[in-house]
Amino acid sequence: MIEIKLFGSIEISRAGKAITGFRSQKTLALLAYLISEGRPVTRDYLAGLVWPDSTQKQALGLLRRSLYNLNSKLPDLLDIDRRTIAFSPNVPARVDTQRFAELSTLPDIAAWEEAARLYSAPFLEGIYLDDSPTFEQWLITEQQRWRDLVDTLLDRLVQALIDRGEYGAALVYANRRVALAPWSEEAHRLTMRLLSYLGQYNEALVQYQTCQQVLNEELGVDPGAETTKLYTQIWAARTSPRHNLPPQPTPFIGRHEEIERLVEMLGQPNCRLLSIVGPGGIGKTRLALQVAKAHSERFLNGCTFVNLAAVNSPDNLIGTLSDTLHLSSAGKADLWTRTLTYLQPQERLLILDNFEQLLRPDDQTENPALSMLVDILHQAVDVKLLITTREPLRLRWEQVFDLQGLSYPNHGDISQFETYDAIQLFLSHLGRVQRRNAMPEPDWPGMAHICRLTDGVPLAIELAAGLTQTQGCESIATAIEQNISVLSTSMWDAPPRHRSLWATFDYSWQRLTSREQTVFRQLSVFQGGFDLEAAKQVVHASETSLSRLVDKSLLRLAPDGRYDVHELLRQFGAAKLSETATQQALTQEQHSRYYATLLEQQGVHLKGSPHQTKALAIIAQEIDNARTSWQWALDNEQLAILSQAVEGLGHFFEIRSRLQEGEWLFGQAADRLRQIAKQPDIDQALAHLLLGRILAWQGVYAHRLGQLDKSREVSEQSLAALEALGEAAKQQTMLARFSLGIVDGLYAGNLAESQRHFAVNKRIAEETNALWELSAALQLLGMVAIDQGSLIEARTYYTESLAISQEMNDQWGMGIALGNLSEATCRLEDFETAKELAQEAYNTNLAIDHQVGMLYALQCLGNANYGLEDYATARDCFREALELGLQVGVLPELLDVLPYFAELLITCDQAEQAIALLTTCVAHSASPDWVKSKANAMLDRIRASSSPQGLAPAQGQTRELSAIVAEILAAEVPRYELGAFG
């Protein structure tokens, strides 16, 4: 068989041996033309095409000689008559272009891969007929046509491999796409995405640099907005976790078709809001988690799972969503704006679980929770929402996936029981309840009967399997059937599937001992799970009783040893608990006291201890229970319980930068305490002491958030309440003085006022041996010295503070002290040492997830690198600091970064952008005095060195701070400034 290769230079062979000796390049061009056209072509046209400068007689003669040469080398390959010539379809010949066309039309990845291998170089590479413009035009057109076909094939092949999760294989073909068209931004973007899917973020950023360089050198342009946006998304994604999907205690069974369909739907560009709809217990959450797991790499910023089981209002939705995104939590409009700003540039899948609690079917007015979803869809165009809900949302954006029960055998099915998903699930749970080798022969008909009665609902099947320790499958099925008959009367308006589920619940409940019933209903007070010790202390449950409930599928035991209850079962248990009011009140009180004690004990470690990191993790894990405990104590005027909890919660919110949540929670408590304090039978001293402590923490959060007037107001109220209590509350006054010294002193430029407050705190801390407060006072006195220009004195204060924090094992204090030392050292122009201190500060803050401390350390790193003239790294540090500040919402710290970023812009000849930042710093209400002073000085310097015409467009322009920061993060990256921090 003859092999003809037209991709690249023309090669012809037979049985692996090359055929040579063709008359000329025009002879080969003639053959390639005939093969490509695939039809008879007249002699006259061919002669004129290949030899246009010759007379017709001469051209026809040259054509005859070429045909003779071709026939002698390739007999019978051409069909020739007196008028026309064609490539013969009857001769056994394999042509790479024809094979490519055949393979590319097949619905088979292996065929596409073979076709891709055939295209080794451009069509007829190296063939030039300079004296034949018509042929040259045909050749250019054909080369472009084949390139387009190859591009299409490679795109299809890459997408198919992506759909199969074979990102490494897809990257091979994406790289080929770039090699074939290095100026194609689309090809570069595809490669960047695949590198990101593989976790190779730095390589993806380098790919952007390559694209930028090629476009500049070849076309004299920079990458477009879409490519730059992708760069920004990858830059932001490189340090964030891919997902927060909770681990599951049991394997996922079945649902292969559902997963495939949901993944396909999510992959469609027009699918932005996908709701998995079904009744409780049908398996919506597990399915959503499985889909997210299969799809997480496809979103540059990953997948975020948001559990809404305890959320019952739009304000709580904002708080829970922002908390899960590590922004903070509170029911505040500005927090929602910041959440949207944070999501806007991202490519993320948000899984919102148990959304039905936020729906109000009887209310015809606009639903705020649904409006928030629409806000996300409008403003964050690359974010997709995967919702689990018991009823559709009925939004225009929504695509609904109705989830049915697992497949189960019908009455007539008497074989292959194990092929059904419902039976597989039953067997899986049966194996957990009974050792597999001790299990009798499976009762297939009995299991099938149960699966039919429960309509394949997973939760009901699990509960039924849990009953098999004491009775057979048919006995269980009969009992469920009887319960359904009873419920059909009492719940006549409920769907059959719902009745069967509650019948299973009720029968499982009846099979519990009296003690097990008591434990199960009391466990409903827990939110977000619990551990064995909590169950022992709150409901006096033994490990054995919990194990029995796990065996009966009423509880779930996670790999980390924590217990959890399905939300539908928790609601069932809560309903049973409410039937015994005395037991309900006692259990809720025990729950509240237990978690208040936990907060008190762990709070001690937060002020300095080798266990500080562990304490933070414990409180973070129990935060849902802590909130529930706090709210119950507040509702029931339990001041002693609140007093136990306040310091642990206060320090936790501060260290973890959950400032909005802290300000909202403590502000709400302060309002309630003011009312409680008016009651004559209340312990007034305790009430005012507690109110003063809570107001002090609220003042800390408020000034961190840039709410300076509020911080001043509540801090003054705190100080007045505590000072009225005299010597007994002297140590508690320090927190309020810290805030007042910052707001009325440092931020206002009144250094004498700052000095007064911080000196008083230093004296009180020394008198009471309060080391944490002493360290903080030294830090703040160092800040005063910095502003006074006393750099050596400032460094001394910071060094003393660092030593105290190190002695206490207070990583929070160490992180701040190291950052402050870096700033002082940088101002003394020892940039290398400043860089080392800043890196140590960043690592220390990172270890405890102190985001405000990380922000400050990044700013210090940026300053040190700027001093070392490493502008690329400085720029990346400032960008990351701004991104973190936008997440946390600490306006003063965010504004503090902008003058330094503006300095970098000026150095890089971008004065107009610098002016916009500096003008905002001067005008913003949350700007500390030192920020305004620095910004004004820089503006004066720019004005002195620039023409009025050049300044006119930028002067006087102030815009929303979050919009400015978002613009910086999304801005095009100058070639000379590229770099990656990390």
Q: Approximately how much helix is present in the residues?
A: 55-70%
Distance between the termini: 58 Å
Largest sheet: spatial strand order: 9-10-11-8-12
Q: Extract low-pLDDT stretches.
A: 329-333, 486-495, 949-958, 973-982
Assign an overall shape.
flat
- CATH class of one domain, named Alpha Beta
CATH homologous superfamily descriptor of one domain: P-loop containing nucleotide triphosphate hydrolases
CATH architecture of one domain: 3-Layer(aba) Sandwich
Largest sheet: 5 strands, parallel
* Rg, Cα atoms, Å: 36 Å
Question: What structural class is derived from the secondary structure elements?
Answer: mainly alpha
- Care to count the β-strands? 14
CATH domain topology of one domain: Rossmann fold
Number of helices: 44
- Strand residue percentage: 5-15%
Mean pLDDT reading: 87
